[in-house]
Amino acid sequence: PGQLVFAELLKQEMLDFGLSDVTLDEHGYLMAKLPSNVDYDVPPIGFIAHMDTAPDASGKNVNPQFVEDYQGGDIALGLGDEVLSPVQYPDLHNLHGHNLITTDGTTLLGADNKAGIAEILSAIAMLIENPDIPHGDICI
């Protein structure tokens, strides 16, 4: 039920953006389109993300932890029984000097693909605010 409430909020945001063909079905599938702003044929592009989170862990009582100015090495999750290691996750090598947000190991972080939704809607907002950027139909 919470995800359908979230979908309704996203639907309203898409309507507020002025997107066309905004639909939300009974299963929570939300779709919309930013119409093309060019007068020639351009293949449409679709950006897809999901709202649901993994059923492996509850989305309640999420306990994020913050790593300021990551300098490499293992990141202890919670009490340190589990770690994020650059050996398992080599992309950590690219994050030296960055601030990181991770789970404490007891729950999922919960961003899941909601971060993807935020990125897609941010890109759509940027295109709406900059109509001089040519694009074909963008389906989300």
Describe the structure.
The radius of gyration is 19 Å and the shape is globular. It has 140 residues and is α+β, with helices and mostly antiparallel strands. It has 2 domains: 79 residues, no CATH class; 40 residues, no CATH class. The mean pLDDT is 90.
| Radius of gyration using CA atoms only | 19 Å
Largest sheet: 4 strands, mixed
Average pLDDT confidence is 90
Which bin fits the share of residues in helices?
10-25%
**Segments where pLDDT lies below 50 for 5+ residues?**
none
Shape: globular
How many domain modules? 2
Strand content: 15-25%
Distance between the termini: 22 Å
Spatial sequence of strands, sheet with the most strands: 1-2-8-3
Q: Give the helix tally.
A: 2
Structural class: alpha+beta
Number of strands: 8
Helix and strand pattern? HEEEEEEEHE
Keywords: Hydrolase, Metal-binding
GO molecular function, one term: metal ion binding
Organism: Vibrio parahaemolyticus
Protein name: Peptidase T
Task: Give the helices and strands, then pairings.
Blueprint: H1 2-17, E1 20-24, E2 30-34, E3 45-46, E4 64-67, E5 75-77, E6 82-84, E7 100-103, H2 114-129, E8 138-139
Parallel strand pairs: 3-8
Antiparallel strand pairs: 1-2, 2-8, 4-7, 5-6
In short:
The protein is of the alpha+beta class and 140 residues long. 23% of the residues lie in helices and 20% in strands. The chain folds into two domains: 2-52 and 112-139, no CATH class; 64-103, no CATH class.
